[in-house]
Task: inverse folding
């Protein structure tokens, strides 16, 4: 059904500097769905997530992206966030001198302002922080630390999922969220993602490996190779790739 | 001005601004000096210590000159400064830190944010005399250059004539980090607000010379207002 569609990507081409990386991507995500985009290194997986989040270094050269009925490509990164897109970064950025509390308070209240809502009271904000931090088992003292500065790989990814919980997005894009995680951190992150899932929302998991998919079960699996989606199937495709590699899929 | 043996000076606050009314009243533990042309020769005797905080706020040209002389052992000096030059300000800072006695320490940190057609010149010289053994002397000047038409000239210099010393100096000129900006924007923080946060976090280490408390909070909010309204 058309009104179930959260994200529709049609013929998307994008380049960074002079290099064309996405060469015509089509992808439709509906409410309640979890999609996985898999593919070998250099296929364009991270470019796809960066383009959807609006990273300025990427130039879209052709195609159309519609998010909740609106032209996504016309929106600034912050407008995309306000509209309900969240990107969990493969390499979360360190922001020295800015505490997690200050960062999240600014993020949450900027969005409320953009949507015409009053800022959260200090008490309401702290309650929300506490609740969402518990979801990914972040200790309360984390809120005072500078964003991602000196964090371990696992702490950075838990911080991403914490931010996702705070911002309550319609579409979450998890870019290589499993990279650099040990099994315990992987489980905590996956539990967080699964807890946040609702029939009204959707998730795109971008990954190289099957690992994360033992915990987050996809509905639809896409293989991205050389800037194009070359195969789309159900979750059984994951096992096939794990056994035969990406070379077997054309 | 001489800080006598064993004395600890109040923090000397040097402010260049069009309006310091919000800063002056009710400060204890500070000497407040305002003015766009400021020159001070400070002598630190044995065991004396002095903290100096320099705030150069938007809207005025200024020229500041510090000559700090450590004439007795175990003297300590911290000289921290922030200059905000958003439009067409001309700022000149000249520091001479003279270690003439042993076992003294000096720590300098100057940070500047320069935009528009402003121009900032920083000359910093540390001289460690032959007898001034066991000296510690550090000097850093970090700058954000936010426009193609603004200019920063930074010249840190080190002259060491003693052999048992720990000294370093450094200067850096950079721009606001775009990866940080994109990360913040992807969380819904508008671009302008992201830049303000970056500038405030850049300025924060200068104010960190002050102990936690009312005075620090007041200066921090004063700096925040200046950054928000001028950049």
Result:
């Amino acid at each position: 059904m058309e009104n179930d569609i959260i994200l529709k990507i049609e013929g998307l081409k994008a380049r960074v500097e002079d290099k064309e990386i996405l060469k015509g991507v089509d992808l439709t995500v509906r409410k309640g769905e979890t999609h996985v985009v898999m593919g070998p290194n250099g296929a364009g997986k991270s470019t796809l997530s960066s383009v959807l989040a609006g990273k300025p270094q990427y130039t879209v050269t052709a195609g159309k992206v519609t998010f909740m009925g609106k032209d996504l490509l016309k929106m600034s990164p912050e407008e995309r966030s306000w509209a309900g897109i969240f990107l969990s970064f493969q390499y979360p950025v360190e922001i020295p001198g800015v505490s997690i509390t200050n960062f999240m308070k600014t993020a949450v209240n900027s969005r409320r302002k953009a949507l015409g809502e009053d800022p959260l009271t200090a008490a309401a904000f702290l309650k929300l922080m506490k609740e969402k931090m518990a979801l990914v088992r972040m200790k309360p003292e984390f809120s005072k630390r500078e964003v991602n500065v000196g964090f371990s790989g696992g702490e950075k990814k838990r911080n991403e999922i914490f931010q996702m919980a705070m911002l309550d997005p319609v579409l979450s894009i998890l870019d290589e969220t499993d990279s650099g995680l040990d099994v315990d951190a992987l489980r905590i992150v996956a539990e967080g993602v699964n807890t946040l899932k609702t029939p009204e929302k959707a998730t795109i998991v971008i990954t190289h490996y099957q690992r994360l998919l033992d915990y987050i079960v996809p509905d639809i699996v896409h293989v991205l190779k050389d800037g194009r989606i070359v195969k789309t199937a159900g979750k059984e495709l994951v096992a096939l790739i794990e056994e035969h590699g990406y070379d077997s899929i054309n | 001005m001489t800080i006598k043996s064993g004395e600890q000076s109040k923090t000397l606050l040097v402010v260049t601004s069009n309006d310091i009314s919000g800063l002056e009243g009710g400060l204890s533990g500070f000497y407040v000096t305002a003015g766009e042309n400021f020159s001070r020769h400070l002598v630190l005797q044995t065991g004396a210590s002095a903290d100096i905080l320099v705030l150069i706020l938007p809207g005025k040209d200024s020229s500041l000159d510090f000559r700090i002389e450590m004439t007795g052992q175990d003297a300590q000096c911290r000289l921290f400064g922030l200059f905000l030059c958003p439009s067409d300000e001309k700022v000149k800072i000249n520091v001479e830190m003279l270690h003439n006695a042993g076992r003294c320490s000096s720590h300098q940190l100057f940070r500047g944010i320069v935009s528009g057609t402003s121009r900032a010149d920083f000359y910093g010289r540390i001289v460690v005399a032959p007898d001034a053994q066991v000296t510690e002397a550090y000097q850093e000047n970090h700058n954000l250059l936010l426009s193609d038409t603004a200019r920063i000239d930074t010249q840190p210099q080190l002259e060491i004539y003693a052999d048992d010393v720990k000294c370093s100096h450094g200067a850096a000129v950079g721009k606001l980090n775009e990866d940080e900006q994109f990360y913040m924007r992807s969380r819904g923080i508008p671009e302008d607000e992201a830049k303000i946060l970056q500038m405030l976090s850049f300025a924060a280490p200068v104010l960190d010379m002050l102990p936690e408390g009312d005075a620090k909070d007041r200066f921090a909010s004063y700096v925040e207002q200046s950054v928000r309204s001028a950049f």
